[in-house]
Design a protein that fits this description.
Elements: H1 18-23, H2 31-47, H3 64-77, H4 82-95, H5 101-108, H6 110-129, H7 141-154, H8 158-174, H9 179-199, H10 203-217, H11 219-231, H12 233-253, E1 259-262, H13 267-277, E2 289-294, H14 297-310, E3 312-320, E4 333-338, E5 344-351, H15 352-360, H16 381-392, H17 410-414, E6 416-420, E7 426-430, H18 435-442, H19 444-448, E8 450-455, E9 458-460, E10 472-476, H20 497-529
Parallel strand pairs: 2-5
Antiparallel strand pairs: 1-2, 3-4, 4-5, 6-7, 8-9, 8-10
Helix pairs in contact: 2-4, 3-4, 3-8, 4-6, 4-8, 5-6, 6-7, 6-8, 8-9, 8-10, 9-10, 10-11, 11-13, 18-20
Length: 540
């Protein structure tokens, strides 16, 4: 899916007219909110020339100001509130250390800083995985699952996920001409963020993230399907026009209120269906597709009856996602019929509200902590968080075709903590785990020789409680051995039974050697008393 960016806010010299940009944002803001967002824009514009840290996950020619504007536009299309727009505008400048959290809090308040801190924690997934030379796509399945579980543990506010998705959408658009950074960004998007957009039901971002990352990772397959689509475009457009004309007549005669539109079929979706079903391009029915929008659920089923009365339906190609919604909340009727000229096409039927939810997903019904419209899915903020985590708890609908991800439950994710090794691997530990637990999880000998730990580069005590997203480094001594006080529960060194068992085993092994030595000494003395000096007591 190709996005055409609006350039009307640019002056002839390329300078940004912020007032014009603000007026063209696709979201309604009050005057005070417009002033607040404009203040964020001007702050980033001021610091864009200051020295910063290159995070390595953006195209080098796009600075934090342009990236902030583009991120805010995507968030506005998702109909988020002012705080979220401000955070999206500031995020990259903060990430590049051109702004500090203290500056942001002084200017825009603690809630904006809290949002940004959440997005920074999510960014650790790509940063600590070493996205420039440690692609997520090539990881073992267990590591992929750990990364996705980490996402669940990190997200306490859906807006954090939305800002990160918007920022990654901007990033993958921007790296088109940056060959060195294009593949790492595409890998991360393909494995982590396109599935995240899918699980949140945000079709508006999902399709673009999937198609762009697929294009960069699997260029030959992408171009082949693109050529096949382009070669049949005129014929397909004429066919869809004929379909729409016939449907319009039938639905109008039935007195229904409706809208009919063609539906773009995205290249990655076509390729995935071909791979999953083992079929050729010509057998993908929904390359030719229309979507019918109606006011009420009863109108959906009335329309379905009219469609099936007009054309013969293919029984095995019908799905009722209204009665049985998808896990991400998607609702619609899908049917395949033999239409005009004997050609198969897909017809999707849904209400206007269902269509908004399909495009905006979680954004269509999330209540931002006391603002916006009432939430349809939860009555309290805590319930909304629980619901969000369940939505994020995806199973096998991931970027890799044929990948079968192990199921993991919401409760399990809640009770775990996910931290990084210095190499960027994710380690899954019980909630409350310490650096010493981490050391024994990595390797028994690392635990035995542990003498200290660093978390995010700073020395911490071995009793420190680890939190999701932290990077842990263990300091060892060549001659180090376990200490007995590690086993005392009140001191808080070990919280996991696995680590405790390894320490106990080490001490039992040491005690065994001491007992063997004492027994040998007793035998030697007794044999000497009995004048049995020629007896090999080790063989007795």
């Amino acid at each position: 899916m190709v996005q055409v960016r609006d350039q009307s806010h640019l002056r002839p010299g390329g300078e940004v007219d912020l007032d014009q940009w603000l007026q063209r944002l696709p979201v309604q803001l009050q005057a005070s909110e417009q002033a607040r967002l404009l203040g964020a824009c001007r702050l980033v514009e001021t610091v864009r020339q200051q020295p910063g840290v290159d995070a390595g996950d953006w195209a080098r020619e796009m600075d934090c100001f342009t990236a902030g504007l583009d991120t805010a536009v995507i968030l506005a299309e998702l109909q988020v509130g002012c705080e979220c727009l401000v955070a999206g505008m500031l995020y990259r400048a903060l990430r590049e250390q051109r702004l500090t959290p203290e500056q942001v809090e002084a200017e825009f308040g603690k809630p904006v800083v809290t949002l940004l801190e959440g997005v920074v924690r999510m960014a650790a997934i790509g940063e600590l995985r070493g996205s420039s030379d440690g692609p997520v796509l090539g990881q073992a399945l267990g590591q992929k699952d750990n990364i996705r579980k980490m996402l669940i543990a990190l997200v306490d506010d859906v807006r954090v996920a939305l800002i990160k998705l918007a920022e990654r959408t901007c990033a993958i658009r921007a790296v088109k001409n940056d060959e060195q950074r294009r593949l790492p960004v595409a890998r991360e998007v393909f494995d982590v963020y396109a599935p995240l957009a899918h699980r949140l039901g945000i079709g508006q971002l999902k399709w673009e993230l999937e198609d762009l990352s697929f294009r960069y990772l699997y260029g030959d397959a992408y171009r082949k399907i693109a050529r096949l689509l382009d070669g049949k475009r005129v014929e397909r457009d004429q066919f869809i026009a004929k379909v729409k004309a016939q449907l319009t007549q039938v639905l109008s005669n039935a007195g229904l209120s409706f809208e009919i539109g063609g539906r773009a079929k995205h290249i990655y979706s076509i390729w995935r269906k071909m791979q999953r079903k083992g079929i050729g391009f010509s057998q993908v029915y929904d390359i030719r597709a229309v979507r019918i929008l109606v006011p009420e659920i009863r109108d959906c089923y009335a329309t379905l009856g009219l469609v099936h009365g007009l054309w013969h339906n293919i029984p095995n190609e019908f799905d009722d996602y209204i009665a049985n919604p998808k896990e991400n909340g998607y609702r619609s009727l899908h049917t395949a019929v033999v239409g005009p000229e004997g050609k198969v096409l897909e017809v999707q039927i849904r209400t206007f509200d269902m269509h908004e939810e399909a495009e905006l997903g979680v954004c269509a019904h999330w209540q931002y902590k006391g603002t916006d419209a009432p939430n349809k899915l939860a009555s309290t903020y805590e319930e909304k968080i629980a619901w969000l985590r369940q939505v994020l708890d995806w199973h096998d609908e991931t970027g890799d075709v044929g990948e079968v991800a192990e199921q993991f439950s919401f409760q399990t994710a809640q009770d775990r903590v996910y931290v990084f090794t210095p190499q960027g691997d994710v380690v899954n530990l019980a909630q409350g785990a310490t650096p010493l637990d981490f050391a024994y999880h990595v390797h028994t000998e690392v635990g035995h020789r542990c003498r200290g730990a660093k978390v995010n580069g700073s020395i911490v005590p071995l009793t420190y409680t680890l939190s999701t997203g932290e990077r842990v480094e263990i300091l060892t001594s060549k001659d180090g051995v376990p200490r007995r006080d590690w086993l005392q529960p009140g001191l808080g060194y070990l919280r996991t039974s696995r680590a405790r068992a390894k320490v106990q085993h080490w001490f039992r092994a040491q005690t065994r050697e001491v007992n063997i030595a004492a027994g040998r000494s007793l035998l030697e003395r007794e044999f000497k008393r009995l004048a049995l000096t020629s007896v090999d007591y080790l063989r007795v």
